[in-house]
Amino acid sequence: MTRVFITGMGAVSPIGNDVATFWQNLLAGKSGAGRITLFDTKDMPHNIACEVKDFDPADYMDRKVARRIARSTQFAIAVARQALADANLTIDASNRDNVGVLMATGGGGITEIEFATEEMAERGWRSVGPFVVPAAMANAVSCLVSIETGARGPVMTSTAACASGHYSIIEAFHFLQRGEADVIIAGGAESAVSMLTMSAFGRMGPLSSRTDDPQHACRPFSVDRDGFVAGEGGGAMILETEEHARRRGARIYGEVLGGRLTGDAYHITAPDPEGDGAARALTGAVKGAKLQPRDIDLVFAHGTGTVLNDEGETKALKRAFGEHVYDLKITSIKSMVGHALGAAGAQSAVAAICALREGMMPPTINYTPDPKLDIPIVGNQAAPCNARYALVNAFGFGGQNVVAVFGRVDE
């Protein structure tokens, strides 16, 4: 079976707009949460988020292009270009037909629809610009990366709500194993912090109400957790077949060993309280990677900080790993970067590869143990680890469960 290596990475996040800064701030336990600045929150009760800061799209694309696309697509292009540069990979006439793009998003350009609707309500239909639809369409995150980089292989956008981010990595793994490309730019991007989405989430109930203390608001797996903090950003990886990577002498960060998708068939927003679908995804991912549960060292949890999610994920981990669950190191980086929806899994995947390479596990900050969730959370301080294998969990609205398996490659 064709092995799939990771040879480059990119990140845009609320705590750093490159992989090195992102990773160092994760280890330091830095929170990216604060008051929302992307729009006027007026009298809105939910007015905090983990926003990307100091991001200039002109660093990655022409300003004319940047003006015509959604912020989420700007992030997608940025992380793709970072990853290509990190992999020392140039796309040109000799390889462009064998380089694909599989980026993910949850909401795509949902904010563009909101802005255009407001403009139309105020000024009439003639105010609607010609680029609203291409800016809003979800597949722009992949198509614009393809256009900007020149990659002409398979181009696809995965949209699986909060599970989108590393589903694209699993799907890229399958494309490469089937021989449909030599290289794929895979990951996710999201920017859905807007009045519409924050109002909707606020009315739905999963947001943290600790708006007086943004940096301590998101508390995954903690006894006093009360909801997630919205985030944004992107993450990307360059995936290559082993043959292609070795032929060009690429630096190898790690390996994608596979993953598994399952459905809860339970509720459009709430997770299965018993964690059945998540447990089946965990078990299937480990089995598909030809590993045993005892082989897994690290788990980058979905860990949103909501009461229901963290309970269900805890039950799923116990069902999948049995007593070995107490030997794991488990963390949720959402405590620092918030919940970036369709980009969340990609951000966690980048962090997982860094953890395997660097021998350090980032913490879950703001953590106070919950006796009901008696799993080994890496709380508040980073922890050393000598790990071979890591899982990344992502569970999306509608009951979509995605678990990806990554391995360390010693070169």
Summarize the structure in words.
- It is a single chain.
- This protein has 411 residues and is an alpha/beta fold.
- The protein folds into two domains: 4-247, Peroxisomal Thiolase, Chain A, domain 1, CATH 3.40.47.10; 258-407, Peroxisomal Thiolase, Chain A, domain 1 (3-Layer(aba) Sandwich).
- It is 33% helix and 19% strand.
- The protein has helices spanning 19-28, 63-67, 71-86, 110-123, 132-136, 140-149, 164-177, 195-204, 242-247, 276-288, 307-321, 334-337, 344-358; strands spanning 4-12, 33-35, 48-50, 99-104, 155-158, 183-190, 233-241, 254-263, 298-300, 329-331, 360-361, 383-384, 389-396, 400-407.
- Strands 5-4-6-7-1-8-14-13-9-10 form a ten-stranded mixed β-sheet, sandwiched between helices. The chain has a two-stranded antiparallel ribbon with strand order 2-3. The chain has a two-stranded antiparallel sheet with strand order 11-12.
- Strand 9, helix 11 (307-321) and strand 10 form a beta-alpha-beta unit.
- Helix 3 (71-86) crosses helix 6 (140-149) and helix 10 crosses helix 11.
- The longest helix has 16 residues, at 71-86.
- The protein is globular, with a radius of gyration of 20 Å.
Would you spell out the secondary-structure blueprint of this structure?
Elements: E1 4-12, H1 19-28, E2 33-35, E3 48-50, H2 63-67, H3 71-86, E4 99-104, H4 110-123, H5 132-136, H6 140-149, E5 155-158, H7 164-177, E6 183-190, H8 195-204, E7 233-241, H9 242-247, E8 254-263, H10 276-288, E9 298-300, H11 307-321, E10 329-331, H12 334-337, H13 344-358, E11 360-361, E12 383-384, E13 389-396, E14 400-407
Parallel strand pairs: 4-5, 4-6, 9-10, 9-13
Antiparallel strand pairs: 1-7, 1-8, 2-3, 6-7, 8-14, 11-12, 13-14
Helix pairs in contact: 3-6, 7-13, 10-11
